[in-house]
Amino acid sequence: MSGLRRGGKMGPRPSSSLADQWRISAPLPQVLNMPIRLARSFYHGVLLALIAIHAPTTYAQSLGQLALPQEGRSMRATSAHRVNDKGEFDPNGEFDPNSNYDNKNLAPGETRVLLEAAGPGVVTHIWMTFLGPEPHQWAKDGAANHQEMLLRIYYDGSDRPAVEAPVGDFFANAFGKRSEVVSIPVVVEDADSYNCFWHMPFRKSIRVEIVNESEKPVGLLYYNIDWIKKDKIAEDMPYFYAQYKQEYPVKQGEDYVILETEGKGHYIGTVLSVRTRSPSWFGEGDEKIYIDGEAKPSIWGTGTEDYFLSAWGLQTVNTPYFGTAYFDQWGIVGGHTSAYRWHVQDPIVFNKSIKFTIEHFGWISPDENPNYKSDSWNERQDDYSSVAFWYQTGTPTFKARAPHARERKLASLDQTFYATDTLDKLKHGEGMADKQNVNNYPKGHVLYRADSDENSWIEIPFKVEKHEPVRLVLNATRSYDFGTYQASLNGVELPGKLDFYHDGTDEWEYHLLDAWLEPGDYVLRLDCTGKNPKSSNYWAGIESIRLRERRPRVVDWAHDKDKDWRAEPKLYE
User: Fold this and answer.
1) Which residues pair with 437 in a beta bridge?
2) How far does Cα 542 stand from its chain's mean position?
3) Phi, psi of 539 (to 5 degrees)
4) How many of the other CB atoms lie within 10 Å of CB of 418?
5) DSSP state, 367?
6) Which run of H or E residues covers position 30?
7) For residue 47, pLDDT beyond 60
8) What is the percent of the chain where pLDDT is above 70?
9) What distance in Å separates the CA atoms of residue 386 and residue 388, rounded to the nearest whole number?
10) What single DSSP character describes residue 551?
11) How far is CA 141 from the centre of its chain?
């Protein structure tokens, strides 16, 4: 479907029944070519109910397999409190029936071993939870986010981890943002209860650890790791691997490599996360998979969203085998998308090696194109990160390692002007304007409480230092009692209306203008034009004005450098 504008503004998708979204045809352990073992807590409770109701035949098959004899002995590593005979904490002591201190804190730089055990055995389930990054009564200054926590799993005494990924990304949660995931192998219930059901066999030993690479502590870490002690593991049993990598931005002239390794095995999953650096749709690139050393890929896809089993773009969705856990806005500069694809029913089998790549092609705006036009097949310069999941025998040759959390954090693209820093200079119409702390903003926001849409306006000043291409962005609060506004810059009306209504309270970016702004003083004015029919008032909450950098090629082509933005204000999409 190349050449068509994919990825948005195509109208609503055809609706599908919830039953269709959750249909299942085989149990996870069988599909992963592993012995059928304990299937305890196999799915999220909602998923169980939906399967039982809507797929009775296939679900009965997995229930029937539960009746088969099970070999081994169930074990668990847990954060539950243990004490010695003196009542003091002892990780090797007895469980304390008189305590509820079942969590652990990790200081910055600390490594916590969650499981260390002799084999043979197989991990069947990992569950953990911990405080979010926002300030909390038990973490006054906030806590580490899950992108700053590194999960590592070692087998059989190896000094190279078989699993190495940020905790969030391993559980299909990227960018340090918490998102709900409801799939078969990974479930993050209510965006804070992290579960995975990947089976992880080991022969001699296993060590599961978390490294806190944040400057803040990991707060209230609870965990349970369920595993089965075995008498033996089959000689040809493949091991489970997962590896994170990133390119900020992607390398030009090369496809992004998700995995390249030698050995025999099968590829079972991908988490791909993209921050866009250009306007419009990033995802025209195809997956290209090279099997057993072939010079040309024998598996070639039709588009990024197609690989993730969606069509005409991506949107927030959860299904058993694929989904988009996080998606903020379509086509913006600085947009975030994170999708997962589990090859549970369709593992990609290789006998000697696999190289899994994806192109980074898509639409770009005319000012990034040498011909000053917009079309669908352009090499983009976005920020990519990924986690590859696979099973294999032998020693993997994948060279990528997870960089430190400082490098995993996406660098800011913005010059930021906080509204509260200019509170004493703000001008506004009827109503009151004052500072309010909300949404975990670093400096709060300015809450403008307009009583009506008559003579209700607010002006925020800022200064431009350099003549360069930027995108003007308003970072604002949406809420149930907020109004609609018209933006203008130095008296020039900008395209679009701003609706600040939302049924809850959240943070939202409003993209206003692409321009080469001359150095000097500017005023962004917001005039109230009314309110959403669902809103109860006309208020507005302004966190900041941001000048977002554009790609260097906008400077190189300089199509709009000498144009007067006042004559025709433009926002590229």
Assistant:
1) none
2) 26
3) -75, 170
4) 21
5) G
6) helix 28-31
7) no
8) 89
9) 7
10) P
11) 23
Residue among 238, 217, 28 nearest 110 (CA)? 217
- pLDDT of 81 reads 76
CA distance 496 to 485: 9
| Paired tokens of 554 | 């906008």
Mean model confidence pLDDT for the chain:
89
Q: What is the 3-state secondary structure (H, E, C) of 293-305?
A: CCCCCCEECCCHH
Structure pTM? 0.88
Distance (Å, whole) CA 446 – CA 448: 6
- Residue that is written with structure tokens 């898509």 in the block: 362
**C-beta pairs of 56-64 under 8 Å, 24+ apart in sequence:** 58/23, 58/24, 58/25, 58/26, 59/24, 61/26, 61/27, 62/26, 62/27
By residue count, the chain amounts to: 573
- Better-scored residue on pLDDT, 25 or 456: 456
Instruction: Quote the CA–CA distance of 192 and 395 in Å, as a whole number.
Output: 34
Averaged pLDDT for residues 272-295: 97
Nearest to 34 by CA among 81, 89, 72: 72
Distance CA 91, CA 108 (A): 21
pLDDT at residue number 58: 39
Q: Of 149, 136, 124, which Cα lies nearest the Cα of 201?
A: 124
- Exposed/middle/buried for 402, CB within 10 Å: 0-12, 13-18, 19+? buried
Classify residue 315 by its DSSP letter: -
pLDDT at 199: 97
Residue 333 near residue 28 (C-beta atoms within 8 A): no
